[in-house]
Amino acid sequence: MKRDTLSKVENFMRHGLATKLRHDLKKLRITKEADIECCIYYHLRRTLPADGRWTLLARKYAIKTGHYVDLLVLRKKRPRLAIEIKWNRKRMPGKDRKSLNKALRRMRVNKAYFVSVGPDISRTNYHDTPKTPNEKNRLHEVPVGLALSSASAARELKRWKMQRNLLGRNMRVGKAAMKKFWIN
Prior knowledge:
By secondary structure, the chain is an alpha/beta fold. It has helices spanning 2-26, 33-47, 94-106, 153-166, and strands at residues 54-62, 67-75, 78-87, 111-117, 139-144.
């Protein structure tokens, strides 16, 4: 069961996570990088067994690498997966690649993942990073976009961005009135 569970989690990271994040993106649960981290944390916690052997840490500073890792999955207190997250990036930045490579070498994680989520990302405009032989089966990129149909993509993207702005800079004020009391 040890290797079987790790295989299931790795398969979920490469295939199932993208579907769940795309759904969260369409439902406006994701509007910036911190939301991506929360959603991935939530989906991974539901995927990992609750037997106490698995731990999921967010924004963990790894002394061995000298970098913060956005999400780190541990089994029996040993790092197994390292995940770096970016909002709306069409390729993996060099800093994140360096951080993930250090996690692979120095922390000896099994796999490292770069997850990029955003409305402007698609399989056609995302540029996969050429990998070295050491990275080939250990460093994976997971681009997630809205996956809009080409016929109405521009209109749907514009509507999505308007809805996102209502949750951000154009947010309405609440209904509560200010209480009138003074503290001297």
